């Protein structure tokens, strides 16, 4: 999909801060520009050719703009806009992510493009875990993260790793998996809540969906499947956080990274971990991975000799042990 260009017109401090906030919360297919000087707008529009122009209520602007530009007024008086404004409007006293969501809704109504997998917002945040070359601690550490976050917000956990060990760890002997969820989305999107309930399992502090029994299913997931899943999770559920445990590098995993606000890369200090990390960093140094580099954070799980005790419930140790304590410190420092 071609990138959408959003220009924000306004000379106030608020307009500048809003521009930075929206830029931070925008998906990869949105480019955000700020125009601080209204007198320069004609030349500015010729230069960037935006699809959407968001302008402050009292900002003087060029009246005759190309018809393809959607003009949206940023207002602090809904009633006045309903009576006088010729253009759609959004209320300024909201979070930047909510303003962005409403901008997208207005643009979707007038555009011929088809959209799914909208921008990240505060209502639904996605976090991904990845380990270059595989890592046996990826599963317990990401589950500890889901459990800690699930204490404050309603969390949903997906596992896209091959043979992750998740099913025997959680004691599930059967049931529908992520494969069934994707198949259900393709068949009947309007019945998504029912489809999700058919694959949903419940841990003490979070909900989860089992990974496919056949790893080949992961490689057959299409970009459109995941975009639709992200959109439906935001529109049809009340989850506040979705955690993805990602396995081998493939197109679905790349899309998960794109929509995640944070990507934790689990690495080892010893053995071959440092070599894998070196190769991974070389890969990330390519220009095409700049946005991933900005959201990626390395994590070294602290697994001492007392991390797991034989004879005790493994899930209880994961959710309340050393990994959970490390996750709490991680969240305190970085989120």
The radius of gyration over CA amounts to 22 Å
- How big a fraction of the residues is strand? 15-25%
The major beta sheet can be summarized as: 7 strands, mixed
How confident overall, as mean pLDDT? 79
Q: How does the helix and strand content classify structurally?
A: alpha/beta
What is the tally of helical segments?
15
- Can you list the strand order of the major beta sheet? 8-9-7-10-6-11-12
Pattern of helices and strands: EHEHEEHEHEHEHHHEEHHEHEHHEHH
Helix % is: 40-55%
Shape: elongated
Structure explained in plain terms:
- The protein has 335 residues and is α/β, with parallel strands linked by helices.
- It contains 15 helices and twelve strands.
- Helix 14 (314-320) packs parallel to helix 15.
- The chain is elongated and about 70 Å long.
- The two termini are 31 Å apart.
- The model is unreliable at 116-122 (pLDDT under 50).
Layout of secondary structure:
Layout lengths: L3 E6 L3 H13 L4 E6 L5 H8 L3 E5 L13 E6 L2 H7 L4 E3 L4 H15 L14 E6 L7 H13 L4 E6 L5 H5 L7 H10 L4 H8 E3 L4 E3 L6 H4 L3 H14 L4 E6 L4 H9 L2 E5 L6 H12 L5 H6 E4 L14 H7 L1 H13 L1
Parallel strand pairs: 1-2, 1-3, 3-4, 4-5, 6-10, 6-11, 7-9, 7-10, 11-12
Antiparallel strand pairs: 8-9
Helix pairs in contact: 1-4, 5-14, 5-15, 7-8, 14-15
Task: Give a nutshell description of this structure.
With 335 residues, the chain is of the alpha/beta class. 43% of the residues lie in helices and 18% in strands.
């Amino acid at each position: 999909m071609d990138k959408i260009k959003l220009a924000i017109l306004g000379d106030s401090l608020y307009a500048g801060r809003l521009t930075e906030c929206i830029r931070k919360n925008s998906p990869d297919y949105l480019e955000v520009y700020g125009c601080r000087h209204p007198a320069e707008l004609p030349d500015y529009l010729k230069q960037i050719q935006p699809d959407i122009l968001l302008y402050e209520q009292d900002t003087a602007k060029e009246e005759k703009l190309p018809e393809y530009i959607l003009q949206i007024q940023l207002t602090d008086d809904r009633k006045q806009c309903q009576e006088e404004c010729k253009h759609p409007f959004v209320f300024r006293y909201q979070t930047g992510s909510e303003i962005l969501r409403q901008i997208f809704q207005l643009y979707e109504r007038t555009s011929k493009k088809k959209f799914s997998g909208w921008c990240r917002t505060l209502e639904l945040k996605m976090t991904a875990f990845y380990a270059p070359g595989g890592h046996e601690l990826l599963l317990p550490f990401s589950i500890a993260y889901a459990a800690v976050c699930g204490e404050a917000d309603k969390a949903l956990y997906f596992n896209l790793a091959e043979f992750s060990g998740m099913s025997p760890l959680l004691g599930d002997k059967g049931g529908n998996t992520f494969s069934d969820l994707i198949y259900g989305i393709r068949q009947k999107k309007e019945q998504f809540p029912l489809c999700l309930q058919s694959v949903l399992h419940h841990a003490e502090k979070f909900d989860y969906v089992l990974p496919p029994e056949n790893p080949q299913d992961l490689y057959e997931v299409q970009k459109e499947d995941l975009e639709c899943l992200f959109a439906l999770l935001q529109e049809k559920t009340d989850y506040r956080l979705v955690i993805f445990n990602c396995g081998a590098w493939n197109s679905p995993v790349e899309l998960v990274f794109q929509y995640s606000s944070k990507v934790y890369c689990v690495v080892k200090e010893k053995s071959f971990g440092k070599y894998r990390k070196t190769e991974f960093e070389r890969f990330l140094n390519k220009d095409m991975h700049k946005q991933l580099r900005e959201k990626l954070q390395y994590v070294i799980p602290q697994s001492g000799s007392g991390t797991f005790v034989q004879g005790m419930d493994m899930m209880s140790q994961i959710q309340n042990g050393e990994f959970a304590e490390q996750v709490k410190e991680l969240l305190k420092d970085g989120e």
